[in-house]
Design a protein that fits this description.
Layout lengths: L5 H7 L1 H13 L4 E6 L2 E6 H24 L6 H26 L12 H40 L1
Antiparallel strand pairs: 1-2
Helix pairs in contact: 1-3, 2-3, 4-5
């Protein structure tokens, strides 16, 4: 049995995202509300899932191309990127589900959106750090591959 490569991980995660997207596409009144002081950003969940699916597809293709071109990436950095990205995506969904079903939502004087946005912002910041690790891993892999090619000649 073949061991799953990292690009399979990202490509296979497209399946549940696509199923969720097809569900939210037909119930378009479900939206993600982001409140920053006096500004509201209202984004449809279908659009968020489509952006997420595009991200997973592109990242999977990048890992595939690096494997195809035999450019070695640091396994630890790749695993950190894979697990942090996946964990952050799941955490943001769990946070949104928790606060959407919160009991305090009916009480008008209790605003839970600040806690929700704080947790999502922290999780998104960790997600961005994972992408920075991915970018550094790619740059180092390209440099290492270029140095190995020039020293072999």
């Amino acid at each position: 049995m073949h061991k799953l490569k990292i690009y399979h991980w990202f490509w296979m995660s497209l399946i549940p995202i696509t199923i969720l997207w097809s569900f939210f596409y037909y119930t378009s009144e479900l939206v993600l509300d982001i409140n920053i002081h006096d500004t509201y950003f209202v984004i449809s969940y279908a659009d968020v899932l489509l952006l997420l699916a595009s991200y997973l597809f592109v990242i999977g293709n990048i890992y595939f191309l690096f494997n195809y071109w035999s450019i070695k990436l640091n396994k630890l950095s790749s695993n950190i990127h894979k697990y942090l990205s996946t964990t952050c995506i799941i955490l943001i969904a769990v946070i949104k589900l928790y606060y959407a079903n919160s009991e305090n939502q009916d009480f008008p004087l209790f605003d839970v959106t600040t806690n929700e946005l704080t947790y999502i912002a922290i999780t998104f910041f960790v997600f961005l750090i994972a992408q920075l690790i991915f970018l550094i891993n790619i740059i180092l892999g390209i440099f290492k591959h270029g140095i190995q090619r020039t020293t072999r000649k």
